[in-house]
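Before we proceed, please read the two lines closing this message. Tell me what the token row says about the fold.
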Amino acid sequence: MKLLLVTPPFTQLNTPYPATAYNKGFLNTLDISSIQIDLSLEVILEVFSSAGLQKMFETIEEEEKELSDNAYRIFSQRKRYIQTIDSVIAFLQNKNQTLALAICSGTYLPEAGRFQYHESLDWAFGTMGTHDKARHWATLYLEDIGDLITEVVDHHFGFSRYAERLARTATHFDELYEALQQPDSFISTTLISILETHIKRHQPDVICFTAPFPGNVFGAFRCGKHIKENYHDAIVVFGGGYANTELRRVYDERIFRFIDFITLDDGEAPLQHLLEFLEGKRSKQMLKRTFCLDNSTVKYINGSADLDIPQREVGTPDYGDLLLDKYLSVIEIVNPMHRLWSDGRWNKLTLAHGCYWGKCAFCDVTLDYIKRYEPVSPAIICDRIEEIIHQTGQNGFHFVDEAAPPALMRDLAIEIIRRGLVVVWWTNIRFEKSFTPDICRLLKASGCIAISGGLEVASDRLLDKMKKGVTVAQVSRVASAFTEAGIMVHAYLMYGFPTQTLQETIDSLEMVRQLFEAGAIQSGFWHQFAMTAHSPVGLDPMSFGVKSIGPDFGGFAENDLFHIDPEGADHEVLSEGLKLSIFNYMQGVGFDEPLHTWFEFDVPETTIDSDYISNCIYEISEANIRPSEVVVWIGGDAIELIIIPIKKNKGEKTKQAYAEIIISGRTENFSLYFNQQTAEWVIDLLMNTAPETGNKFTIEKMKMSFENAGLGEFNDFLVSEGFALLREKGLLIV
């Protein structure tokens, strides 16, 4: 049986969405051959080419559509766009780097509406080299073409979404169904042409579409329509994040005119069961978490008692078949975290299935992808890292966990260093107090460059109501620890949570202002609270002080819910002001501006003291070293021990000689000084606590070793200048 795994348009330009790679990796463990394609990328490359633009401009000319001033400007420069597009795409694929000089000259690219404000961003270019500046201009150039496509060619178009509106809050299938009956646009014609090429080449029996977001759904169904009309024996399977959150009780039979099966949650076991059914090895009633049409009626079948595949057995994601050298590195210069998302090739991996916390009131904690927590061992993760680096030639990793567990992150960092892996990675976290400055230094040493975490609402009352399990003070200290270690911090920020008042929002904004001003966070994004059907708030809105008011379910998607909040403020009007404020704070400006400056209407004065965050960050906490904590040395190798004799006075007993330990650090050699006996013990300590040894050397073991060596009271050593110097130079307690 031949399988074709498909990512439909559109997701992201810079790196593959990993779902098909995960499925292909699992199928490899079953010795089932599969091909994966990223139609999201391939459609973009086809359209944004000299031949593609030539066809598009000819189509526009033939249809004689009325053009806005901006669209006409682009259309009038069509010859220049056709001449430059292939070289710009190659440049964004890191294949034509010298083009940066021409782009930065200001005379190479045609310019339209997106360039209108680029001069206002000159402040950002001060920290950007020629290459990054050129990528930014090339990004604006692509966005100009995208604006023309959206206005004139296909109003559903977006670089990371396609017809998103049709699938978002689509409780009924009617609008999506009607859209699927319409004649193909230039974009959908291109999509079907590329799909047809792959089907003829690979002749698959089963075609699986993964739709992580609403912006992938129309593309998947349009492909499904083509397959069902032209390849009657082919089986079409639909799954992914959208199905998992939105399609949990479908009953509209029209859905199954475009697809045959919908699978929910982790795809490994449902897909394996489905393949066994298609091969006659399993009855339909023994499928797992699968919707299908049975006697013209939609049925949900979950008769299998088989457990899901353990995470340690799902295999290594396989990025084979994908056009890894053709992804585009576009650039976002305003938001540092958004820049990270859009820039560079990131291999995506998961440290653990689900969320170890699983309590947040706004989150889909009742669904499998959150509630079933199952970590993977650091050894297996590093095995997969090594395999993927070998596959892709890329050492950048985005661990896509809901919230990476702190203890697992610590152990993974040690394993990465032990194996000598050279990787760059980032992930999502909760601002747990267990992220001490030492752990942050360890993560940095292993290659961590950034973390993102939910501060959400900078209000302890609301954080408690959300069941976040953190406080503003705790977030401040943890974020500062990451920053001090050289790791960028991005904060997810929320406004409009049930019962949130205007005063609380303004106070939350003041907290955020102070966090940026103190340098504790470098990036952030405000989003408005949305009530979902599978969250604690959505399941029991009255307990959170709000009332659900729809929408009525019509047999298709069910997730986003409308609500009214009798106690809360009208937060919709605050949106622009909140976004404007954080835009300025991310650039290091506007800290002295009164908060009301960001809004076009009166808002209350903040009640938060101006030094609240700085007091939280610098609050002195009592050091409490536990015997079970692990000691890790990351400061470098001891390369020389020099004995420094001490001249004794007449009649004195022999003085113990001092010694200099010379360490080869990352940037320079440095020295540590102890008495000779202690110095010899310290060298032994550094050797035993280096990650490369694989030892788990605890404080308790360190104490026993110190006292057995006859070096005195261990507690006295812990408060000594020598120990403080060791800690400064890289002796971590984690």
Notes: The two ends are 50 Å apart (CA to CA). The first strand starts at residue 3 and ends at 7.
